């Protein structure tokens, strides 16, 4: 589903008459009027677009049943991000131990103008944008460099998209926002329409993908980007395992609550009947695989009911269910890797401790 948010200069003006100089107020009265599902046909009615609807209960049930029946047991990480999960992740981003968000944000703040200069005028297309806080640095720089910027944001969380859009139209009058509810894998088809573009894939979300998923991801990216299009990738870098493990085992227990959230969702949507207090969060760094592995450990044996499929899966005491991987990267190796998919590194930015990397990639000419 795609919604179009028009900037304050174009729509919602009638209901805001007499108060156009207060952008906060303007945005508040603007959003409900412009947050309309698109309809096909009409010139004035925004056109309809359906990448996918929110994952259905049946899809959730099937993926949970498949993952829990696999060896080792696992759950797809995208189901962590319902409204509560997205809010918990936002909270993780503010934790003292979780350095990636603020480190990446500082890198973007320092180099946004340089990026705008290298890419020139482009549509910004963000995959898995969440609350899009870090994107503000880029919108500021592109807004200053260009007369008008189009920002297309794609996320599975409708709530996060709506929040982000409201804040962006308030703070950046030069920016037009298009919000797309969908999985980032489904967003590739948009690249062609918005070319010349700069695709943003920040926050080391790429780290959630395993080897096979990563190959498919880069193959699709390369296929859908036109030669000359840009891709901005944020990646968490290999570092002291203690620093890494602390980031995923915070003292306040928010990471643990985030992991448990997918089981809470199973209780709500699948009538799973789980005792959440008996499910522990475990996050360890696997040095050989250069990744944090996050699992839920079942302290007691539990029967997981999956009501929509009329089935039950038994999980024994002490068993683990992997809920997430978070890969860490080495810049030089990653540059070689993406080159295999026709992407050349145009600029590489990092912080003084070299904890996080931001890579500006460009689609090479077809050879
Ligand atoms: C959103 C996938 C980048 O891997 O660091 C943070 C998710 N999970 N703490 C990460 C996460 C637990 C995060 N990513």
User: Order of strands across the widest beta sheet?
Assistant: 1-4-3-2-5-6-13-12
Q: Give the overall form.
A: globular
Q: Evaluate the radius of gyration.
A: 21 Å
Biggest beta sheet attributes: 8 strands, mixed
List the quaternary state of the chains: single chain
Describe this structure in words.
The chain has a single domain (1-7, 35-367), classed as Vaccinia Virus protein VP39 (Rossmann fold, 3-Layer(aba) Sandwich). 37% of the residues lie in helices and 23% in strands. It has eleven helices and 13 strands. The chain has an eight-stranded mixed beta sheet with strand order 1-4-3-2-5-6-13-12, sandwiched between helices. Strands 7-8-11 form a three-stranded antiparallel beta sheet. Residues 5-49 have low confidence and may be disordered. The structure holds N,N,N-trimethyl-histidine. N,N,N-trimethyl-histidine (AVJ) is lined by residues 92, 100, 203-205, 207-208, 248, 255, 258, 324, 326.
Can you lay out the helices and strands and say which pair or pack?
Elements: E1 2-5, H1 23-34, H2 57-68, H3 83-93, H4 100-119, E2 123-127, H5 135-145, E3 149-155, H6 158-171, E4 175-181, H7 188-194, E5 197-201, H8 211-224, E6 230-236, H9 241-247, H10 254-270, E7 279-286, E8 291-298, E9 302-306, E10 311-315, E11 320-327, H11 331-339, E12 343-350, E13 356-363
Parallel strand pairs: 2-3, 2-5, 3-4, 5-6
Antiparallel strand pairs: 1-4, 6-13, 7-8, 8-11, 9-10, 12-13
């Amino acid at each position: 589903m795609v919604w179009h948010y028009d900037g304050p200069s174009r729509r919602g003006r009638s209901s805001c008459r007499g108060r156009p100089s207060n952008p906060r107020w303007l945005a508040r009265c603007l959003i409900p009027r412009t947050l309309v599902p698109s309809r096909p046909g009409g010139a004035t009615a925004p056109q309809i677009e359906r990448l996918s609807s929110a994952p259905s209960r049946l899809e959730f049930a099937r993926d949970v049943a498949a993952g829990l029946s696999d060896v080792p047991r696992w759950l797809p990480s995208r189901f962590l991000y319902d409204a509560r999960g997205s809010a918990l992740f936002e909270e993780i981003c503010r934790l003292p131990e979780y350095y990636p968000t603020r480190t990446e944000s500082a890198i973007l703040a320092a180099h946004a103008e340089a990026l705008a200069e290298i890419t020139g005028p482009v549509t910004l297309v963000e995959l898995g944008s969440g609350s899009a806080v870090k994107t503000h640095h880029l919108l500021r720089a592109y807004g200053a460099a260009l007369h008008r910027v189009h920002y297309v944001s794609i996320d599975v969380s409708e709530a996060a998209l709506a929040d982000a859009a409201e804040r962006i139209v308030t703070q950046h009058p030069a920016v037009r926002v298009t919000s797309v509810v969908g999985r980032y894998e489904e967003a590739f088809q948009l690249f062609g329409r918005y070319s010349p573009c700069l695709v943003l894939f920040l926050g080391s979300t790429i780290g959630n993908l395993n080897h096979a998923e990563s190959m498919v991801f880069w193959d699709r990216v390369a296929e859908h980007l036109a030669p000359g299009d840009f891709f901005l990738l944020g990646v968490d870098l290999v570092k002291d395992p203690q620093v890494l493990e602390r980031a995923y085992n915070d003292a306040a227990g928010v990471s643990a609550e985030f992991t448990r959230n997918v089981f809470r969702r199973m209780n709500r949507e699948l009538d799973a009947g789980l005792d959440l207090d008996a499910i522990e969060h475990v996050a360890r760094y696997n040095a050989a695989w250069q990744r944090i592995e996050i699992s839920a450990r079942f302290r007691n044996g539990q029967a997981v009911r999956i009501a929509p499929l009329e089935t039950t899966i038994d999980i024994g005491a002490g068993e683990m269910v992997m809920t997430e991987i978070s890969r860490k990267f080495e810049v030089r190796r990653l540059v070689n890797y993406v080159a295999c998919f026709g992407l050349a590194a145009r600029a590489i930015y990092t912080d003084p401790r070299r904890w996080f990397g931001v890579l500006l990639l460009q689609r090479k000419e077809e050879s």
